[in-house]
Specification:
This protein is α/β, with parallel strands linked by helices and about 525 residues long. Helix content is about 55%, strand content about 10%.
């Protein structure tokens, strides 16, 4: 057994391999990224980007910058400054840039100028994955995840704040921008991005955009409130006329009057039954059926009275809240973010974040085939666009490969996408949850589906019946194992956008999904 430690010879001269191909193993991800980027058609990228480099110097090769950016995202590195540092300290990054690393301004500018080409590059990598044997479209799962924007949730402001400060801040921001543009350039060694960089909009423009976005959302909310008010008034008048009204009484100032009108109608209807029964008895006739119960025992009247009591309590609570709000500072319900005006406050299991709603369509072998970025917190309306995008991708790939695995079998989605529109729209077979997985398991166990449904069964009835069959239950179980790992791995690549604005963030999401798929293809080909 050795009696001493291994020597640490930092001063020992040594000769490194003179060939970069010997710096990393042949199966390293860097070589795969370089080989893939070499076969991609980047003509659109070359047309949309200008010469990249310092003044008076030759520009950087766009293929090198693209490979550098893709590999950085594969490693979860998105900061242009961090990429610049990695080109000095990390051997894989040094190989990618051939030891001629670009500065962070060049990297950030390239990412901004190339954003329109990322969607096409995503499609090309999907085709490469399909030709490598990936992409089992028998089951395609759709789900969403909230990704933070490059903005703070504390930068949200309401209409009152904008009315007071917007004009003042815009003028101040324009002054600051003019001062920065007149300042010396990067030659003094300062680590800052030039003021004219495309992915950093001017402060004044962001504030104007946030103010305009807020005004637009206020107009939309006013239209919605007006429609709800008109519908509530129509329901109230119909109820006051003694006509039946279907559905739950909506909250608002008309809730209590409609509840009282509903109670009066129920009392009148039951009183008419009592009077008719008494008239038959008085006429010496034998009434048919059971006699009506007393007014106090009528379940419909009791229910109507409970509705009135609940409406009275709600109105009193609203009045108390109004008094409390008038004494304290109230928070605005509609806000806009002055850093990224197009981002929204998104609810998550861990609270709220300022960001976007990212939608993914993932195949059975966890290949991302479609992505979409939206501003809505609700997933329901995202299902049909994602399903059609998955169909388009599958048709394009199948036309080239002719592989039957590249034909969509069943689209799976959780209860957040459950709606009659999503179930009845034309398209491939789909299976959408009706509730939590725990409740579905209990229903399938205690009340399993039996027999055949009638020919006139609705799409919702067919869907619910399938979820209670052993085959349908087993099929839906694939959803979690298909899309959830894909979302988790994508969040390792991008858990926060670097670019601001919906369009820029969408392009960055395509870049992250491209990196995700490239790593998937690399692992599959290496294992083979």
């Amino acid at each position: 057994m050795a009696k001493s430690y291994r020597p640490v010879l930092r001063d020992q001269p040594m000769l490194l391999p003179i060939d970069m191909h010997e710096w990393l193993p042949q199966d390293h991800l860097v070589w795969f990224v370089l080989d893939t980027v070499d076969v991609l058609d980047i003509s659109e990228l070359e047309q949309t980007t200008r010469r990249r480099g310092r003044a008076g110097a030759r520009g950087y090769d766009p293929r090198m910058l693209l490979a550098l950016l893709v590999y950085a995202y594969c490693q979860g590195v998105r900061s242009s400054r961090q990429i610049e540092r990695m080109c000095v300290t990390d051997i894989a990054f040094r190989v990618l840039c051939a030891q001629d690393g670009p500065d962070h301004s060049t990297i950030a500018r390239f990412r901004t100028e190339a954003r329109d080409a990322f969607s096409d590059l995503f499609s090309q990598v999907l085709m490469i994955a399909a030709e490598a044997g990936l992409g089992r479209f028998g089951t395609v799962a759709i789900d969403g995840t909230k990704i933070a924007a490059n903005a703070s949730i504390d930068a949200n402001r309401g209409k009152q704040w904008f009315d007071q400060h917007a004009a003042e801040m815009v003028a101040e921001s324009e002054t600051i921008d003019r001062t920065e543009e007149a300042a010396p350039g990067m030659h003094d060694g300062q680590d800052r991005v030039p003021a004219g960089l495309g992915d950093r909009p001017r402060r004044a423009e962001r504030i104007r955009q946030a103010a305009e976005d807020l005004r637009s959302r206020h107009r939309q909310q006013a239209d919605i409130d007006q429609q709800r008010e008109a519908a509530a008034i129509a329901r109230r008048r119909r109820s006051e006329q003694g006509l039946p009204v279907v559905g739950r009484i909506p909250d608002g100032p008309h809730r209590l009057p409609e509840a009282r009108a509903h109670l009066a109608r129920e009392i009148a209807v039951h009183q008419a039954k009592l009077d008719r029964y008494a008239a038959l008895i008085a006429a010496g006739k034998k009434p048919m059926g059971r006699p009506p119960v007393p007014m106090e025992d009528s379940t419909r009247v009791q229910r109507a009275r409970r509705v009135v009591r609940n409406a009275e309590n709600a109105e009193q609570a609203a009045a108390d809240d109004d008094r409390t709000t008038s004494q304290t500072k109230s928070l605005p319900k509609v806000v806009a973010n002055i850093t990224d005006p197009q981002s929204r406050i998104m609810p998550t299991r861990k609270g709220f974040l300022q960001g976007y709603n990212a939608q993914l369509a993932v195949t059975g072998d966890q290949l991302i085939i479609a992505v979409h970025l939206g501003q809505s917190t609700n997933d329901q309306h995202c299902f049909l666009p994602m399903m059609r995008a998955a169909q388009s991708t599958a048709a394009r790939i199948h036309a080239v490969t002719g592989n039957t695995d590249h034909v969509i079998g069943t689209v799976l989605a959780d209860a957040g996408y459950n709606s009659d529109t999503n179930m009845t729209a034309p398209g491939p077979d789909r299976l959408i949850a009706i509730g939590k997985d725990r409740d579905q398991s209990i229903a399938a166990t205690k009340d399993p589906a039996q027999g055949q449904l009638p020919a006139d069964a609705t799409a919702r009835q067919i869907n619910n019946h399938r979820l209670r069959t052993p085959e349908g239950r087993a099929l839906y179980k694939r959803r979690g194992a298909t899309v959830e790992p894909g979302i988790g791995n994508l969040n390792q690549i991008i858990d926060r956008f670097s670019c601001r604005g919906l369009s820029n963030a969408t392009s960055e999401l395509h870049l992250a999904a491209t990196a995700f798929n490239l790593m998937k293809v690399h692992r599959a080909t290496t294992a083979a």
